[in-house]
């Protein structure tokens, strides 16, 4: 099956710093999403981005489908950005919900 | 517009008891997915359902686990004769237009 690898596994930042999180996947995909799991365990949708570039405030994401990777950029990080960031992909058209998750990047933003 | 609703948020069961987890999808969504998250791991797909039909249960353990999504009411994930290894966070998602949205999860603890 398809493999999803995220890097780095852990990241510690000072408040205000920028960061780039990477997601590599081993085969072509029809769906790619980024999620933030906050310290309370809630999964928050960040981007639905099977290809191209999107921006939402301090966050932006780029997926290069032909090269099988996606990047999540966090600028001017805040303590509330702490948590685990997951990349998830779907290989076939299953209405978007049969996702394969990476192991996540655990981000800690220090004040 | 309410999101995906799961209940209970926390569930404690003794070994050998049954656990019932409920999920109501977002309004207008007819596809429901269940995932399990073990400690320090990413989410793993379990089952995909539409109303009254199981579409894909390739991630479900062969014994003790079952799921349904009746014509009326929420989707139910049922775990019979729970064991300590079933302790995990169970998430439900629903999707529309290929983007999945997750509930807040049910944290099952087996004592």
Question: What this model shows, in words?
Answer:
- The complex is a heterodimer of chains A (111) and B (111).
- Chain A is built from no helices and eleven strands.
- Chain A has 111 residues and is mainly beta.
- In chain A, the strands form two sheets. In chain A, strands 2, 4, 5, 9, 10 and 11 form a six-stranded mixed beta sheet that branches. Chain A has a five-stranded antiparallel beta sheet with strand order 1-3-8-7-6, with no helix packed on it.
- In chain A, strand 4 (31-37) and strand 5 form a beta hairpin.
- Chain A starts with a strand and ends with a strand.
- Chain B is globular and about 40 Å long.
- The termini of chain B are far apart.
- In chain B, the strands form two sheets. In chain B, strands 2, 4, 5, 6, 9, 10 and 11 form a seven-stranded mixed beta sheet that branches.
- The A-B interface holds A 30-31, 33, 35, 41-43, 45, 48, 86, 88, 90, 93-104 and B 31-33, 41-45, 48, 55-56, 89, 91, 93-102, 104-105, 107.
Would you spell out the secondary-structure blueprint of this structure?
The complex is a heterodimer of chains A (111) and B (111).
Chain A: E1 4-7, E2 10-14, E3 19-25, E4 31-37, E5 43-48, E6 52-56, E7 59-64, E8 69-74, E9 83-90, E10 100-101, E11 105-110
Parallel strand pairs in A: 2-11
Antiparallel strand pairs in A: 1-3, 3-8, 4-5, 4-9, 6-7, 7-8, 9-10, 9-11
Chain B: E1 5-7, E2 10-13, E3 19-24, E4 31-37, E5 43-50, E6 53-56, E7 65-68, E8 75-79, E9 88-96, E10 99-102, E11 106-110
Parallel strand pairs in B: 2-11
Antiparallel strand pairs in B: 1-3, 3-8, 4-5, 4-9, 5-6, 7-8, 9-10, 9-11
How many beta-strand segments of chain A?
A: 11
Please give the number of β-strands of chain B. Answer: 11
Task: Enumerate how many helices of chain A there are, as a single number.
Answer: 0
Individual helix count of chain B: 0
Largest interface: A-B, 24 and 26 residues
| Content of β-strand of chain A | over 45%
Radius of gyration of chain A: 13 Å
Low-confidence stretches of chain A: none
Structure class of chain B: mainly beta
**Largest beta-sheet characterization of chain A:** 6 strands, mixed
Provide the succession of SSEs of chain B: EEEEEEEEEEE
The proportion of strand residues of chain B reads over 45%
Low-pLDDT residue spans of chain B: none
Which percent range fits the helix content of chain B?
A: under 10%
């Amino acid at each position: 099956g398809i493999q999803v690898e995220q890097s780095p596994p852990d990241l510690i930042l000072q408040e205000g710093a920028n960061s780039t999180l990477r997601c590599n996947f081993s085969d072509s995909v029809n769906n790619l999403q980024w999620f933030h799991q906050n310290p309370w365990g809630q999964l928050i949708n960040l981007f639905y981005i099977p290809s191209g570039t999107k921006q939402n405030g301090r966050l932006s994401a780029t997926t290069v489908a032909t090269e099988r990777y996606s990047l999540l950029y966090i600028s001017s990080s805040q303590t509330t950005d702490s948590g685990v960031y997951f990349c998830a992909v779907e290989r076939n058209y299953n209405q978007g919900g049969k996702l394969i998750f990476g192991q996540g990047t655990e981000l800690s933003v220090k004040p | 517009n309410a999101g995906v609703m799961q209940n209970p948020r926390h569930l404690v069961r003794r070994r050998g008891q049954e656990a019932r987890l409920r999920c109501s999808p977002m309004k207008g969504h007819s596809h429901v997915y269940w995932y399990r998250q073990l400690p320090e791991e990413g989410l793993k797909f379990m089952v995909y359902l539409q109303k009254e039909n199981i579409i894909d249960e390739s991630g479900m353990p062969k014994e003790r686990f079952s799921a349904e999504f009746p014509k009326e009411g929420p989707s139910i994930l049922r775990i019979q004769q729970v064991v300590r290894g079933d302790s995990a966070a169970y998430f439900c998602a629903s999707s529309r237009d290929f983007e999945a949205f997750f509930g807040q999860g049910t944290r099952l603890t087996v004592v």
